[in-house]
Amino acid sequence: MIHNDKRFSHSAITLGKYRIAACPRALEGGRYAAQVSIASGRGSASTDRVMRFIDDFPTHEAAASYAIEQGLNWVRETTRAH
Questions:
Q1: Can you give the residue range of the structural domain that contains 48?
Q2: pTM as predicted
Q3: How far apart are CA 23 and CA 10, in angstroms?
Q4: pLDDT for 5-41, tens place per residue?
Q5: Which residue blocks in the chain are alpha helix, DSSP H?
Q6: 18-47 burial, b if ≥16 CB within 10 A, otherwise e?
Q7: What is the number of structural domains in the chain?
């Protein structure tokens, strides 16, 4: 089940034990880089994987959407392997 998480300033969702948050950043020239945080666990047992992507995007929303899509794909592939 996927849940939206309003506590993050950028779009974030929960898929199973994973919290997927888009973290777009502004680039020179007005474009945006996509990056995504995939976190799981709590306290000292928590992990956070951050992926940054080469492509750039014309809007903050486009970069966030791409990042979330890639994060969801990573979680689905990871959980399918187990």
A1: 2-81
A2: 0.81
A3: 6
A4: 444 445 689 999 999 999 999 999 999 999 999 999 9
A5: 60-81
A6: bbbbbbbeeeeeeebbbbbbbbbeeeeeee
A7: 1
